[in-house]
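chain and backbone:
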Amino acid sequence: MVHDLRAVLDAIGYVARYGIEWRALPVDFPPHEAVYAFFLRWSGRGLPERLVGRLRGRLRIMAGRGELPTAGCIDSQTIRAAETVGAAVCGYDAGKKLKGQKRHIAVDMLGLLLCVIVTAASVQDRDGAYPLLARLREKFSTIALVWADGGYAGRLLTWARDALHLTVTIVKRSDDLRGFVVLPRRWVAERTFAWLTRYRRLARNYERKPEHHEAMIWWADVHRMTRRLTRELAGQPPHGRWSDPPPLPELSSPDRRGKVLELLAAQPWRAWKGAELATILGIENINSFRVQLSQGPTRATSTRSDQPSTDPCPRALKPLSAGS
């Protein structure tokens, strides 16, 4: 053995996360020929799927659930295929008006991946659900209930009940609803698709064979679950998006005036409003609090003009009266 296996594993995760070509791997990793050879060898042996199974069990136990799931959710997603993908494994999805491939997944109620199958985009959802549910029953004998959308209605329900002893429940969207509405149970699979799409290698299918794309999905899920498990073991909160406001500091001042100054000093770039400060400080009468903030600069006018004011509160409260 010449190459470090941990470095090879990190290189595969780097390709899945940032969507680069195998030849574009940085020089810090082993040669791309060796990394790709290990990718084929490990994926053929089912190593990423077994890693996901172990990580899933630990995450479910930490969430207060059983190690094996008892219910799941299935869904499909159509993605475009690159020019490297052959026409024999591609199709046209008339509903989405996309030419490419379709990935069918089954997840538990935490959104953790259970099974995945990649087919041509021309394959209907219910047709792709037959091998997906069969593989799901083969791997997990504890699952008894599966949720799906209206595209899986029909003979699939009877076949799953009689052949696999699975109850497939259809969650339909009401015709009276307009716009985006979060549907019960179905949002779990949609969120998993959103997690996977963050990996740029999965934003479009670049793999020549469907089994290689399935392996890349498993490797991306290994990368995601290891980082989630690390954060939970360290007791750290999930990473916020770039648009999320920073967390508020711990206010140690006993009076209201000192707490306002602490907030201004901790986040001087933020345009605070009176209603926001009243909510943070737990003040019910917002109008009187706004009056107090507006009176802050007026108290500084009573001081002598030849002596500099040592009170930083009036200067700090000036943007509050404008934003309130």
